[in-house]
Design a protein that fits this description.
Blueprint lengths: L9 H24 L4 H5 L10 H20 L13 H16 L3 H4 L6 E6 L2 E6 H26 L6 H5 L5
Antiparallel strand pairs: 1-2
Length: 170
């Protein structure tokens, strides 16, 4: 059985973003129950040189929409990075989900060899589509989702591996 570029990108981004939104719901509930100002969680970072929770979610969203768009050979929508609440972050995830859901397999399948040019450290770097997806887009996406999860887990939000992975289905 072969696996397509669409199958290893779009459904993965969709499922993981849905799980991230559910994790944010739990964080919002946690903050309300413990009378913690949500801005404390949204501004929390694991280390002084790391980005805060809200930025981790923004960047995860950006990687999902940009990777999907690049593989489809279209422009990704641009969002302002002005989310200041859990509701704002979930709305951003919803916009990202809506955009990614517009993409059809035929737009992405066959993009294995499509040239994807990125600006990395101020320098343009061109990768084939498969290399870009497997060695840049997915690792970056999961880094930021995992970091958002880790921030909330560190702050005491009762989440676990099941929340991160979500329902397993075929």
């Amino acid at each position: 059985m072969t696996i397509s570029m669409y199958q290893v990108s779009v459904p993965v981004f969709l499922k993981t973003l849905v799980n991230l939104a559910a994790i944010l719901d739990k964080a919002e509930t946690f903050a309300a129950a413990r009378k913690v100002d949500p801005s404390v969680l949204l501004g929390y970072r694991l280390a002084p040189d790391m980005l805060k929770l809200s930025q981790q979610v923004q960047i995860a969203s950006d990687h999902a929409k940009r990777a999907s768009a690049r593989l489809a050979g279209i422009e990704a929508p641009v969002y302002e990075d002005n989310e200041a609440s859990f509701a704002d972050l979930k709305a951003r995830i919803d916009k990202t989900l809506a955009f990614i859901n517009t993409l059809k397999p035929e737009q992405i399948d066959g993009s294995e060899a499509r040239d994807i040019t990125l600006k990395v450290g101020g320098v343009n770097r061109t990768l084939g589509g498969q290399t870009y997806l497997l060695h840049n887009a997915l690792p970056n996406f999961f880094f930021h989702v995992t970091t958002a999860y880790a921030i909330l887990r560190h702050c005491g939000v009762e989440i676990g591996k099941k929340d991160f992975i979500g329902q397993i289905y075929n």
